[in-house]
From TrEMBL, chain A:
Keywords (A to Z) from UniProt: Cell membrane, Membrane, Oxidoreductase, Transmembrane, Transmembrane helix
Protein name according to UniProt: NADH-quinone oxidoreductase subunit K
A GO cellular component annotation in the UniProt record: plasma membrane
Originating organism: Streptomyces montanisoli
GO molecular function, one term: oxidoreductase activity
Family: Belongs to the CPA3 antiporters (TC 2.A.63) subunit C family.
Entry's localization field: Cell membrane
Lineage, top ranks: Bacteria, Bacillati, Actinomycetota, Actinomycetes, Kitasatosporales
UniProtKB/TrEMBL annotation, chain B:
Stretches that traverse the bilayer: 6-23, 30-47, 53-73
Localization terms from the record: Cell membrane
InterPro entries: MrpA_C/MbhD
Lipid bilayer topology: Multi-pass membrane protein
Protein name (database record): DUF4040 domain-containing protein
TrEMBL record, chain C:
Family statement drawn from the similarity comment of this UniProt entry: Belongs to the CPA3 antiporters (TC 2.A.63) subunit B family.
Predominant cellular place of this UniProt entry's protein: membrane
GO CC annotation: plasma membrane
InterPro entries registered for this protein in UniProt: CPA3_antiporter_subunitB, MnhB
Keyword field: Cell membrane, Membrane, Transmembrane, Transmembrane helix
Segment forming the signal sequence: none
Domain Na+/H+ antiporter MnhB subunit-related protein: 108-226
Membrane topology reported for the UniProt record: Multi-pass membrane protein
Protein's recorded name: Sodium:proton antiporter
Organism name: Streptomyces montanisoli
Coiled-coil residue windows: none
Entry's transmembrane regions: 74-90, 111-131, 137-156, 176-198, 210-231
Subcellular location: Cell membrane
Length: 114, 86, 252
């Protein structure tokens, strides 16, 4: 059972990948990409968690209890916020695709471009 | 060792993540994605990462829906307009 | 259709191989719940003594891995710039701001109450970011949420009026610039780029952390401005969907 968190992370990553590959709508594909990203968050955070541990914050911490890995948490928390602007950029591209190509479907857009 | 709460939350996250991908209607996907984000918030909390949980809470329930809804209405409304004009 | 089918057919073997490799790699990770590796163990043991900051992830984000965070900030900066460029170009700016007002009195009053509360929560999250969970990244985003509330509870005019684009543009740029300036100030003080050159202060007080506090605030400013800018662009797109925007009822 100790590999279960990693399996969940893998499932999220692959599900998101399938969504991106099979998507017929750029908005749907962008959200699927965030699901893929969430897979990496789950993998990192699960890697950092300690059984019977506590958050790596020394203010108000209980002495003697082990603390979770703060490095992976630091990596994840910046990426979570940056993912917002990444999604915004993808959605802006989707809006441009709609405006110029008249479609949100990747395949149709490929046909428009020739 | 992994405890029961963590197993339950992980299962929720996996199911909701697959549900987000399976949801082909973007408007409904926004709702499911919000729930998925909320499940991730709980996951990060039980995995001893409150900083990440705060990030995820703001991101998945304020920023994502707003950006997605604005884009969905923009692209849909535009489509309807064009169809009327033609 | 054939193109899509071909892609899905190709996806099956590729995904199978990827799934195999991924699972093999993930299963080879240290088993769940095992104690942190050497780097993390070192930081957990010595961080408070070295940097006097009680929220260890914040100390890592803004000090030990400050260089990575600079990269993340620049990703943020360029993404926002890309979004603004993509959306501003080819948009006919009528200059006319719609007079939409929130129709329901409950939304207006609850919203008017929530705007300062959310803003305060954001500023609080930033300012205590190096003591308790929080920090510039999260707090900045909460602050930009407060700007969104101005539109939800008030009107689009109010939202744009209180967050003028030149000001927000300037805030975003100066947030990023302040981060780099703090790094350069460390160079000027004779230390490495982004090294903590200010006194670390008392553990657990708002004056602790030295440069961590400065970088935290710079990041908060940049993320808040980035959020507001992105919301501006997307709301502008949304507003333009309806030629005479009264999606919500006019006030009587």
């Amino acid at each position: 059972m100790s590999v279960y968190p990693y399996v969940v992370a893998g499932v999220l990553f692959l599900a998101g990948l399938y969504g991106v590959v099979s998507s017929r709508n750029y908005i749907h594909a962008a959200v699927c990409l965030t699901v893929m990203q969430s897979g990496t968050y789950v993998a990192l955070i699960a890697l950092g968690a300690v059984s019977g541990g506590q958050a790596p914050i020394t203010k108000g911490a209980q002495p003697g209890k082990p603390m979770a890995d703060p490095v992976v948490q630091a990596l994840t928390l910046t990426d979570v916020v940056v993912s917002v602007v990444a999604l915004a950029l993808m959605l802006a591209l989707a809006q441009q695709s709609r405006r110029r190509g008249g479609t949100l479907d990747p395949d149709e857009l490929a046909r428009v471009r020739g | 060792m992994i405890d029961v709460v963590q197993i339950v939350v992980l299962t929720f996250v996996a199911l909701l993540g697959v549900a987000v991908v399976a949801c082909r209607d973007t408007l409904r996907q926004v709702m499911v994605n919000g729930m998925f984000g909320l499940s991730l918030v709980v996951l990060f909390t039980v995995f001893e990462a409150p900083d990440v949980a705060i990030s995820m809470a703001v991101v998945s329930n304020v920023a994502y829906p707003m950006l997605l809804l604005a884009t969905i209405y923009r692209t849909r409304g535009r489509g309807a307009d064009e169809r009327e004009r033609e | 259709m054939s193109r899509r089918r071909l892609r899905l057919l190709l996806f099956v073997p590729v995904a199978a191989v990827l799934a195999g490799v991924l699972m093999w790699g993930l299963v080879g990770l240290p088993s769940f719940g095992s104690p942190p590796h050497a780097y993390a163990a070192y930081l957990l043991k010595h961080e408070v003594g070295q940097r006097h900051v009680t929220n260890i992830p914040s100390a890592i984000v803004f000090d030990y891995r400050g260089w990575d965070t600079l990269g993340e900030e620049l990703i943020l900066f360029t993404s926002v710039m890309g979004t603004a460029l993509l959306l501003r170009r080819g948009r006919e700016d009528t200059g006319e701001r719609p007079r939409d007002k929130a129709a329901s009195a409950a939304v207006r009053h609850a919203g008017a109450f929530l705007v300062p509360v959310v803003l305060l929560l954001g500023i609080w999250t930033v300012s205590y970011g190096y003591l308790t969970p929080g920090g510039g990244f999260q707090g900045g985003l909460i602050c930009s949420g407060a700007a969104l509330f101005l539109w939800i509870a008030g009107s689009y005019r109010l939202h744009r009026g209180l967050t003028p684009t030149p000001l927000v543009d300037a805030a975003e740029g100066s947030g990023a610039a302040a981060y780099i300036a703090t790094g350069l100030a460390a160079l000027a003080a004779g230390q490495a780029f982004l090294a903590g050159f200010l006194p670390s202060g008392t553990v657990g007080s708002l004056l602790s952390g030295g440069t961590i506090a400065l970088l935290n605030w710079a990041t908060g400013l940049e993320v808040a401005a980035a959020g507001v800018l992105i919301f501006h662009e997307f709301l502008e797109e949304y507003i333009q969907t309806v030629p005479n925007p009264s999606p919500r009822q006019e006030e009587r």
